[in-house]
Structure formats: C-alpha cells, structure tokens
C-alpha cells in the first residue's frame, strides 16, 4: 500500500525545496543529540526537526511502519520553502529506510538523503539507562530494531554515522559534511 496514494500531491515548486535529510536509528543511537547540536550551529536555511514530537491522527490499527510514514509525510508537507524558508530539513525519525525512500519518492522530493545513526548495543543501552533515563527502552527488541535498521542501511548503501566511540563533535562533523553536500545540491538546482 502506498501511504500517499490517498493524499493530495504537493506542487512541483514546493517539492523542489526544501531538501530532506532523514536521520533514522534506534532509540539511544544519538539522532536527537545530533539534530539538536546541528540546530545550535544555526546554518542558514537548515532546520533540525524531531519528528517524534508530533501527533498524527491515524486509525488505531495502523502499523508502526504506516505511522512512521504518516509522521514523515506530515513533516514533508509542513516544511515548505515558501512558508518557512527552509532549504534543508533534517528530520530525526525511527522510520525504516526503505519506507522513508517510498514516502520521499511518492512525495516527489527531488533532493534527499537517508542516513542511519547507529552505535554498539552496549553503548546505546548504557545511554538509555543513564543520561536518557529510559531504561524501559534498553531491551532486546530495541537491539533487534537497531540490527534491522543497520541491515537495511547496508542493503541500501546508505551513509552510517556510528556514534559508539567517537565524540559528538566528530559525529556532528560527519553529519555536517552530508548537510553541506545536500544543501549545495538543492541550492544549485
């Protein structure tokens, strides 16, 4: 099922801008930290958005995959260049990479990149139990989710930012390079 098949398509001018950089990864991998740190850099035209902080009305029987697609669609439709002057929206999500590709393609987004933010299970669980204060997420199912996302990223040949051992500044530097490339592509179009 194509999530956007029932949605109104956006006009071409809205879809040309902004570009979208989708960060996906398991809880505790470092997506939100990177998104917040990127926002602190105040790069002109770049907006970091935590997608999990929006409620999207969907039927109770909606699968988690369709829910994440609905959330991504919401942010694509809310991030128009004309309304917000956003040239590149960096979206912090937990969407399956192949599902993100579907939504971006169905929406006709021209400039896009999906990036996995990942880390070793022990480090991720340590973060969840400690600084994040969410020990209920440090469970085997989250480890399986992280492994699944890593497998998809590998299969789709997506960039991976591994936050296991490197500093947040080093991870932010890697993200910054991807942001600059995508932003330059969008501005050149």
Label the structural class. alpha/beta
Radius of gyration: 16 Å
CATH top level label:
Alpha Beta
Number of domains: 1
Strand content: 5-15%
Q: In sequence order, what are the helices and strands, one letter per element?
A: HEHEHHEHEHHEH
Uncertain runs are: 1-15
Under CATH, the topology is which? Rossmann fold
Named CATH architecture: 3-Layer(aba) Sandwich
Tell me the number of helical segments per DSSP (H or I, 4 or more residues long): 8
Mean pLDDT: 84
Please outline what is shown here.
The chain has helices at residues 12-16, 31-40, 64-78, 81-84, 97-106, 121-129, 140-155, 168-188; strands at 19-24, 46-50, 88-92, 112-118, 160-162. By secondary structure, the protein is α/β, with parallel strands linked by helices. The protein has a 5-stranded parallel beta sheet with strand order 2-3-1-4-5, with helices on both faces.
Characterise the protein shown here.
- There is one protein chain.
- The protein has 189 residues and is α/β, with parallel strands linked by helices.
- The chain has a single domain (11-188), classed as P-loop containing nucleotide triphosphate hydrolases (Rossmann fold, 3-Layer(aba) Sandwich), CATH 3.40.50.
- The protein is 48% helix and 14% strand.
- The chain is built from 8 helices and 5 strands, in the order αβαβααβαβααβα.
- It has helices at 12-16, 31-40, 64-78, 81-84, 97-106, 121-129, 140-155, 168-188, and strands spanning 19-24, 46-50, 88-92, 112-118, 160-162.
- The chain has a 5-stranded parallel sheet with strand order 2-3-1-4-5, with helices on both faces.
- Helix 2 (31-40) crosses helix 8 and helix 3 (64-78) packs across helix 5.
- The model is unreliable at 1-15 (pLDDT under 50).
